[in-house]
Structures are given as structure tokens and as C-alpha cells.
Design brief:
By secondary structure, this protein is of the alpha+beta class. It contains 9 helices and 12 strands. Helix 6 crosses helix 7 and helix 7 runs antiparallel to helix 8.
């Protein structure tokens, strides 16, 4: 018989026994890790499938850990570091993309005010502690955006030459930096300098034709339909926006519905507790949007079978329109009644959608929301959603009339 103390552990011979709180903590850590792995896989796919080749940068995870990436940054030909290839290491935390990665530059003596030894002080890699959305780390950043920002930042103009240093000494100084960077041979990966860089640079970066292509506008828009936090495309999950409500104190009636502009999947909202848009707008609820998705598809997954002690391959037929409508009904019920078990009604549609459209239009006209292409697209998304809801609840059309 074991006695459990206030600390939550059994105190007999076998050592500490995890309590429910510890099990919940362990489960939360595993969830964070799973979400991070998914997101890093998305970032890797974005790098490999990039239609426009990245020039002078490369990155890939190490074979033994997806949380540690090695990469290379080649100095531009018009830079004082021309010919140099700087090898870097990015270490991602278990809760990425909620927290930024750490960055190390090997054999780096770049003459830059924000470079301290092999460490780099870059604003976008600092935690956003001040609350300003335009400062610090943002979960919308990807490995690709880090590399591009790093390339433009690292090779900025160096410090002004000192008066007592002649031109020859000044040039020799940068040649020494270039030689030092190029002589680095990584002990953890196959990088052997600019002759054998690892990971290698994109083979198409010198092919001019790779930068010239014509894409269908509809395809371009479809490729932009991604969750900003998880990078999950519309084909894999329903996408929506975060919304916040304002209610009348006495009656509890909805006074206004304020939407954010950035697309977000339900997993990011529910499982990862995302409550801010890219530009720092806070929200409390999630509302799915309708993009006309209708073509059914198969979703493949694996499930562990306790009897056979093996993973079984599961194929599920997904109807994206039905899935979206199911989530839409639940969302409308929760927005209006704070209960997903009730049936959606025409009055719910009237209580939410006109106010959402009005708020969005007023914010655009009064410059509270930047009148961008995204804001205009969201306006059409909201109108399309309103039409779908009227199709589902024809009585709402009669009430409007």
C-alpha cells in the first residue's frame, strides 16, 4: 500500500510515480512536439517545392533530428564577402513555430554591428515580448523567410573604414574573413566548403528560364490558401478566420463581430491555442470560410492495432463541402448561443453575418484595416459565406426582406 503526499508522488521504494498533472504535462509536451514536426515538414516541403528557386541560400534538417537544421548562405557577388559561403545551424524549439529558432554561424567574423562571435542578433528571431506585432518573432515566419532575411541582413554594408587603415589592409581583412568561412568543414554534416556545400544550393538558381513562368490566376490563389500558423493547405483542412465579439451588457445580444484577415485552420485554433493574427489582432472565436471546395478526396492515415500490435493503413473519404458546413453550423451556434449542441437557425445567421460584413467594411473605409488585396478578398469570402448560410437557412432571406 502506497501513501501519496502533497507533492503528488508516491513515497515507497520504487521512486516517484507520475501524477495526473505530470501525465498532462507530458502529453502537452508531446503535442507541442508533434505540431512542431508537422510544421517543420511543411517548411521543408516549401523549400524543396519552391517554384521560384532560392538564390544563394539552402537549408535542410540533419538525419538524426528534424529539430536541427544546417544551411548555407552565399555572399552576393557585389559584396565585400564575395565568394564566401557561410555555414549555419538552426535549432528549433519543441513548440516551434510559437517560439523562434536559435541560430549559429560557424567560422564567422563578419564585420557587422549585430554579429557577436558566432551569434547573430536578428530582430525577427527574438521573442515578441513588447507586444508590437511588427517586432520580434511571428509564427507566420518560415525557414525560407528566415534565410531570405538573414541573407539581406548579414551582407549589409560593413562598418566605415578607420582612418588609419589603408585600402590594401581593408581588402585583406575581408579576404581573411572569406577564407576562414570557406575553410570550415562541418563535423555534423557533409559540408566541405564552397566546393562541396551541404545542403547543396538549388541547381536551378543559375537557370534564367526557371525564373520565367506563367501561372493560372486561379492556381495562384489556391496556392495562397494556407493556415498562417501551421502552413496547412485548404486541401488538408478547412480554413477560416479568427473573430472577436462585442455584446450588449444588459441583453447579451451581439453588438459587433470583428474578423481578422489571416487564414487559420481549426487545429491551430483549438489544439495550439492561437489567439492572435499576424498583425497582432486578438480574437476569441473561429469562423470557417467557404472557398467553393466540393471535390471529394481520400485521406490516408495510420492507426495502431492493439490486437496485431501493428499499424493499420486507414483510408477515409473526405467531402470538403460537407466537412466545412458541419464546422460552420457548430461555429455559428457557439458564436450566438455558446453551445454547439443546438440547431443552427436563420436568426443566428442574421445576428452574425450582417454585423461581420458591416464591421469589415467600416474598418476598411475608416483605415482601421489596411485596404490591401487580402482585405478585399476577405470581403468577397464573407459575402460568399453569407450566401451559403442563406442557402442552408432560406428563412434568413425572408427575414432580411
Amino acid at each position: 500500500m502506497s501513501a501519496r503526499g502533497r507533492g503528488g508522488f508516491a513515497s515507497r521504494g520504487r521512486g516517484p510515480v507520475p501524477t495526473r498533472n505530470n501525465a498532462q504535462l507530458r502529453s502537452a509536451l508531446m503535442t507541442h512536439k508533434t505540431n512542431s514536426v508537422r510544421r517543420l515538414q511543411k517548411d521543408l516541403k516549401e523549400l524543396r517545392d519552391c517554384e521560384v528557386p532560392l538564390f544563394g541560400v539552402s537549408a535542410a534538417p540533419l538525419d538524426d533530428s528534424i529539430f536541427t537544421w544546417h544551411g548555407n548562405i552565399r555572399a552576393p557577388p557585389d559584396s565585400v564577402y564575395a565568394g564566401a559561403v557561410f555555414h549555419i545551424e538552426m535549432t528549433f524549439p519543441q513548440d516551434y513555430p510559437c517560439s523562434p529558432p536559435g541560430l549559429t554561424i560557424f567560422n564567422c567574423q563578419v564585420d557587422h554591428p549585430n554579429v557577436f562571435g558566432n551569434k547573430l542578433c536578428l530582430d525577427m528571431l527574438e521573442p515578441n515580448s513588447k507586444g508590437r506585432w511588427y517586432e520580434g518573432w511571428n509564427s507566420a515566419y518560415t525557414v525560407e523567410s528566415i534565410l531570405i532575411q538573414l541573407q539581406s541582413f548579414l551582407f549589409d554594408k560593413p562598418k566605415t573604414k578607420k582612418r588609419n587603415v589603408n585600402d590594401e589592409e581593408w581588402e585583406d581583412k575581408f579576404k581573411e574573413i572569406v577564407n576562414l568561412a570557406n575553410s570550415f568543414k562541418c563535423p555534423r554534416c557533409k559540408h566541405r566548403g564552397p566546393i562541396e556545400p551541404y545542403p547543396p544550393f538549388n541547381s536551378k538558381e543559375t537557370d534564367i528560364s526557371a525564373f520565367c513562368f506563367v501561372r493560372d490566376p486561379k492556381e495562384m490563389i489556391e496556392n495562397e490558401l494556407l493556415c498562417f500558423h501551421t502552413r496547412t493547405p485548404l486541401a488538408e483542412s478547412s480554413l477560416g478566420v479568427g473573430v472577436s465579439l462585442s455584446r450588449l451588457p444588459r441583453t447579451g445580444e451581439i453588438r459587433s463581430v470583428t474578423p481578422s484577415a489571416d487564414l487559420l485552420c481549426l487545429r491551430a485554433f483549438q489544439k495550439q491555442n492561437v489567439r492572435k493574427s499576424i498583425d497582432g489582432v486578438k480574437f476569441t472565436h473561429w469562423l470557417p470560410l467557404y472557398f467553393g471546395e466540393s471535390k471529394p478526396y481520400e485521406k490516408k492515415s495510420q492507426r495502431f492495432n492493439n490486437e496485431t500490435q501493428q499499424f493499420d493503413n486507414i483510408v477515409t473519404q473526405i467531402n470538403p463541402r460537407e466537412r466545412m458546413i458541419h464546422l460552420l453550423k457548430k461555429s455559428m451556434c457557439f458564436l450566438t448561443k455558446k453551445d454547439t449542441r443546438v440547431e443552427m437557425s436563420a436568426n443566428m445567421v442574421i445576428e452574425v453575418m450582417p454585423k461581420l460584413l458591416t464591421t469589415h467594411l467600416v474598418d476598411m473605409v475608416s483605415d482601421n484595416t489596411h485596404v490591401s488585396l487580402v482585405a478585399i478578398r476577405r470581403l468577397f469570402n464573407y459575402i460568399r459565406l453569407f450566401r451559403l448560410l442563406i442557402e442552408l437557412q432560406p428563412e434568413a432571406d425572408k427575414i432580411l426582406d
